[in-house]
């Protein structure tokens, strides 16, 4: 199966996903095999919602839209153009996926197949309904994928390389267990934003998307902000107030109530508005319904501190602060070439 055929299969998958990425799901008669898969995928979305309270319909649709927008001819060709992808010997690559946001492991899945390898997937129990169904769709539009995609709930065996994502604790286990294999092992990371105090209301509204999308559960979600001394949080709170209906979601509300009670009993200083809290804290990882903040005096000193802690940081959201910054509102819209932990997975897969 040549590279252009693999690319074409994922373009067709993007066309299929595009039907489910809007508020109103609408069937496109031009999409291949819709008569086989359309209604079934609607059912899988419903199952995913029922199985995981964090996977709301809005968040699933957001994830599907992100992938539909990425899986276009221009994006796939731009992503792959720097690489020399030949029809080398195929290896079996195991992927251990996290389950914090819908289809969080799809980029690894795509990367393995697009480089010509076989994939062995071990999913999280929190996100097990969507990807196997999409894999079946791929096998229909490109029958050559049959036998090259396998899912397992058992112990991983018979693989040549591994890509594993988990917590800092599980990463230590992964590093020991997979020490004899080429691997990418990902640990905990969080994203931060650096504010100057001169942000427009539109920029603060955009930042709220980086904070609240997926309830803040993704490594690309902003969990901490750095603000100049004397920063006034009034405009900041106004910028994300439109997210207040989030408190009507039971799992979020339970976390908000619990964390608020902990802070109050511990007599921690915090600011809150009835559905969200901000707390001064040096940590990067904040609990659900909470955002940490820290004041800074000197921009250069802050840059040095962030560089020193770069292994803890996935994204830096800012405007004119560092070269690799992400614009406000864009953390959950990565390009195919925006690699997790800045580790080029395609280059890794071509080297095994």
UniProtKB/TrEMBL annotation:
Superkingdom in the source lineage: Bacteria
Alphabetized InterPro entries for the sequence: Ald_DH/histidinol_DH (IPR016161)
Protein species of origin: Gaetbulibacter aestuarii
Name assigned to this protein: Acyl-CoA reductase
Lineage: Bacteria, Pseudomonadati, Bacteroidota, Flavobacteriia, Flavobacteriales
